Amino acid sequence: MLSVIPRQLGYSTRLFRHFATNAESLASPTVDPIEIEHFSKLSAQWWDEHGELKMLHRMNPPRVAWLKEKIAELRDLEGEPSSPSWKALGGLRILDIGCGGGLLSESLARLGASVTGVDAAASNIAIARIHQSHDHSLNNLVYRHAAVETLAVEGQQYDAVCAMEVLEHVDEPKNFLKSCAEVIKPGGHLFLSTISRTPFAHLLTIAIAENTLHLVSPGTHNYDKFIRPSELIKFFKDLGWLTGTYEDRPNAQEAEVRGIMYFPGNGDWQLSNRGSSWGEQCNYLFWARKPKTP
Amino acid sequence: MRVSVARVRFHPALARVQHITPRARYATTAPTPAEDYDIVIVGGGPAGLALAGALASSPAVYATSRIALVEAGSLDKVREWTMGEGEFSNRVSSITNVSREFLHGFGAWDYLDQTRTMPVEEIQAWDGLSSARITFNTSDIPSSSPARSPHLRPSQIATMVENLNIQRALLRTLEDKPDVNLLDNVKVLSITRNSADETDDYPHLTLSDGRTLRARLLIGADGPSSPVRAYTQISSYGWAYPTHAVVGTLFHRPHPLGLPNATAFQRFLPTGPIAFLPLSPTAASLVWSTRPELAAAMKQLDSAALARYVNAAFRLPWLSLNYLNTVLLESYASGTPLTASQAEEEISFRQQAHSIDASSALSSLQTTIGVPAEGSDSFPPLIHSLQRGTIASFPLRLTHADSYLGSSSQGRGRTALVGDAAHTCHPLAGQGLNMGLADVCELVRCLDAGAQHGSDLGTQVVLQPYARNRYAANHSMLSVTDKLHKLYALQSWPAVWARSTGLEVVNELLALKGAIMLGGGAAREEPNAGKAAMRFAADAVEVGASTLYGAKALLSGLGSIAGTVVGKAVGSLITNAGKQ
């Protein structure tokens, strides 16, 4: 329907680029107290459930449920023991790219994963760390001000990589996706959520949400950057993820595309059924799995 | 529910105590490090303990959350609570089948002392002026309703249980759940935000033993004057009724034909309803709502004299009861409480005035044991005495909090209210605790879902469905009980006219039936609730045909004068049930 992250709190905005240089050192005791105060206020904004990110807060439970479901499905398919639902991600190393204030990272960590949250905006990392510091249940979560390309160069490897509401803001999506693919272990998962390039999406996200209702600042979205599910599928076919025939598991070599739609009546996001056509019209979730053997 | 927490922070007298306590003074300069809890429940009454028990039975919540329950009183006293055979506590609840299923679902029901519970198979309610009567039993519960369950006797519509029996059972459920920390004999001195760090939005509880708890989610199960509600700054709407409820344990002889004591009786008097709730073949619980001055006078009576008044209140015409009330108030004012023989004399005199024979079912006087009089099953058994020490009274209030969740934008997030902390109502439909248990059931469902999603359990995303799903249901129940009560208090001529024609009575009794049958979450996941509601409408015609001029008169009556008030209440109940 529309991007759930307003521009001033988003992945790569001018505002945060402005702060990015000094904010990296926030964790150190020498940091300027005025800056801490500034980030505290932004932190309150990020985590205000009634504020601008209300829709993103609401989106979190259904997307976490879907992520758990995919991982459990694949474990089941390959005969691995299942975990209890509340520790469904136990033992997994997960990277959350574009973690923002840490909404998704925290949930994944509570479900047992060892989570690394990265964001290109240092201020987001500062916000996420402040919020984490209040929560005694988040010992297996670290935040880094880093780009996925840096992690790829370092040779980091993860069981799952998430890039939620990021792709539509990236300048070079192919390079970005390649770096994501590099840091995933063989047999690991990639979870994306983004907006499709359809007239419907243009209407909802730009014509209505930005220019008419001003739910999101005008200029947040660039229609040309929207990516269709078919383009993602083609990209991963070319990469060899979706054509390989490993272990005769047809399910594991097909991408999954699920539309996700906001229903203002009850304030819930709902996922479309697999293969349903409205799923590809606007906001959607995308899953693909890296082959176990190259 | 016990009001369990001192409101030091909000109460000047107790704040003074805090100043002279060395520990408290020390705490202001060097605070003890706060202990982190995910869920802190304040209040160890039935709702708070049920919440702890049900949370402990959710594997997701129990495995991922540190839970504490804070209670000002002694939980050991509840654990060790006993009473002699045949004696009963005066705080008794009518547990609906839906509530019972909920308690059964996490094992608490099995820990009840079953010999102290009583299944209710029939409820008889009638009007004090017109004697229009409505009887309801399981045929009024749709077969698909969760209120019909394989665990239940097919004829059972509710179960009478002492609140302490429920609390003790819940504590036993928690015995093998060591990770639920029960902190009793501890008062909450204050609830505050972390003043040193405004990004820390967790409530901090300072306890009377010097500890500080930091709560991801703070739940107020702390009764009508809830300190947690005070912290949340949620205002509440409501009023005190000019009415007190007199409670006590009634003793009577066993049924002469050996029948079980399975019928509850309620008569609606202009001063308020009087209810007889069976507890054993020879005991029952009294809930008599009446004017405060009458309640005060009744409490001065000895057991035998009060027993006679109770008998008369179920049987004598209102004219005579009103006279008996005057006699009672006069004797109370003169400082010489009425004796049992004086009471008997007055009642006997009034019976003669109404030509009530001493051997008829309408006689309030004990006769020799023999074949029961015809029609005696329409009235509760004759009471001979009340259990020593059980006569008590309390004021009745309607309150409804404006919200069940503290506002995060006002810095009072991470808080929720359940049970009497969120709402109190007139006891005439016996729904107070059932509403609280329905709250608990829904809140636990939301927290369980939150734990499965890895959500922060103190957030609105997790808690909002609880408030959304319970607020309207509770509100319609509060409206029905309130309107029922108020209709009887109306003295204006249109109301009296409507009452005297009997039209209004049918409406009221139907609303009562709706409240009891659909109440306390009975309509939850009830696909046929609409049909059940329609059945109530059909009953209206039935009752109408027998007591009025026929269905046509009834239907026109539904739209008339005071009728619209309760008509709307029933309407909202039906609409609400239909939605669910």
Give an overview of the whole structure.
- The complex is a heterodimer of chains A (294) and B (580).
- By secondary structure, chain A is α/β, with parallel strands linked by helices.
- Chain A has nine helices and eight strands.
- Chain A has helices spanning 14-23, 33-46, 54-77, 103-110, 122-133, 148-154, 173-182, 199-212, 229-238, and strands spanning 93-97, 114-118, 141-144, 158-164, 184-195, 256-263, 268-271, 283-289.
- In chain A, helix 1 crosses helix 5, helix 2 (33-46) crosses helix 5 (122-133) and helix 6 runs parallel beside helix 7.
- Chain A is globular.
- Chain B is 41% helix and 21% strand.
- Chain B has 580 residues and is an alpha+beta fold.
- Chain B has helices spanning 12-20, 22-29, 46-56, 59-64, 75-79, 97-105, 163-173, 227-232, 292-300, 303-315, 318-334, 340-353, 432-452, 460-489, 493-501, 503-518, 529-547, 551-558, 563-579, and strands spanning 35-42, 67-71, 92-96, 118-120, 122-127, 133-136, 158-162, 180-184, 188-192, 204-207, 212-220, 236-252, 263-269, 272-280, 283-290, 383-386, 392-401, 415-417, 423-424.
- The longest helix of chain B has 30 residues, at 460-489.
What keyword list fits this structure?
heterodimer; A: 294 residues; alpha/beta; Rossmann fold; 8-stranded mixed sheet; 8 strands; 18% strand; globular; B: 580 residues; alpha+beta; FAD/NAD(P)-binding domain; D-Amino Acid Oxidase, Chain A, domain 2; 3 domains; 7-stranded mixed sheet; 19 helices; 19 strands; 41% helix; elongated; disordered N terminus; 3-demethylubiquinol 3-O-methyltransferase activity (chain A); Ubiquinone biosynthesis O-methyltransferase, mitochondrial (chain A); metal ion binding (chain A); polyprenyldihydroxybenzoate methyltransferase activity (chain A); UbiG_MeTrfase (chain A)
